[in-house]
């Protein structure tokens, strides 16, 4: 099948093995002083190992490869005496979806209990209903995008705006990123895929008032245009003092 899978550049790899423990599926091993995939069906293609490679030898490519197999992962980890990475005994309120076993990247939806008033001095209930949220990590075909109102959030906004959960996040799917520190072209391409492959009902972009933050809105508008879909769209700007500016 055609899918995303890790690619290890043997010329760049120096065999440091820092990538090995970062792979929750145990898909990477060291052979003759080089990191290699133990088997294609053990790699979920999400690339949790990328950031651990000091030589930038690991990338994610899309090619024909064996389908990711969670049962094979369980057997592989068991043979190594390691705990399974998949959530076999997750709480009923959490619904896992396809996309690999890494807890940090695995797509899941939450069922929120009815909200109650917070106790004096207590915290309010989170309105987050999915995982992951980082735009680099979300699967473009995640079930929680289907029929969703999508909130695209610059990642400083929830820190600046105190009412983020109640006023903006509640009832929405969300993706987050920083256009200053990340590749905005990647954001545009990823959002185009999400818009194209999912039935998004509306798009709201939350950005900070600083000029560099406008890049995430540009990426969203370009992605909408590239998807060829007409989806209701609006932008909201938050000041650095946490006020809604429009």
Automatic annotation (TrEMBL):
<dbReference type="InterPro" id="IPR017896">
    <property type="entry name" value="4Fe4S_Fe-S-bd"/>
</dbReference>
<feature type="domain" description="4Fe-4S ferredoxin-type">
    <location>
        <begin position="4"/>
        <end position="33"/>
    </location>
</feature>
<dbReference type="Pfam" id="PF12837">
    <property type="entry name" value="Fer4_6"/>
</dbReference>
<protein>
    <submittedName>
        <fullName>4Fe-4S ferredoxin</fullName>
    </submittedName>
</protein>
<feature type="domain" description="4Fe-4S ferredoxin-type">
    <location>
        <begin position="34"/>
        <end position="63"/>
    </location>
</feature>
<feature type="region of interest" description="Disordered">
    <location>
        <begin position="98"/>
        <end position="125"/>
    </location>
</feature>
<dbReference type="InterPro" id="IPR052911">
    <property type="entry name" value="Corrinoid_activation_enz"/>
</dbReference>
């Amino acid at each position: 099948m055609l899918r995303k899978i890790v690619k290890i550049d043997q010329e760049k790899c120096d065999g440091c093995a820092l990538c090995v423990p970062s792979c929750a599926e145990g898909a990477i091993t060291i052979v003759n002083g080089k990191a290699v995939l133990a088997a294609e069906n053990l790699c979920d293609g999400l690339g949790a190992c990328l950031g651990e490679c000091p030589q930038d030898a690991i990338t994610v490519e899309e090619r024909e490869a064996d389908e990711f197999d969670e049962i094979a992962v369980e057997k592989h980890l068991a043979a190594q005496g390691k705990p399974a990475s998949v959530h076999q005994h997750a709480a009923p309120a959490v619904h896992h979806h396809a996309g690999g076993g890494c807890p940090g990247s695995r797509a899941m939806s939450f069922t929120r209990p009815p909200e109650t008033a917070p106790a004096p001095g207590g915290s309010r209930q989170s309105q987050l209903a999915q995982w992951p949220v980082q735009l680099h990590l979300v699967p473009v075909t995640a079930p929680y995008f289907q029929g969703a109102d999508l909130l695209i959030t610059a990642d400083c906004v929830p820190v600046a705006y105190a009412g983020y959960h109640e006023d903006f996040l509640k009832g929405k799917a969300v993706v987050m990123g920083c256009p200053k520190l990340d590749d905005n072209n990647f954001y545009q391409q990823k959002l185009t895929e999400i818009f194209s492959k999912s039935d998004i009902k509306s798009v709201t972009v939350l950005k900070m008032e600083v000029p560099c933050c406008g890049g995430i809105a540009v990426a969203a508008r370009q992605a909408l245009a590239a998807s060829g879909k007409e989806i209701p769209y609006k932008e909201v700007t938050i000041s650095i003092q946490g006020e809604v500016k429009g």
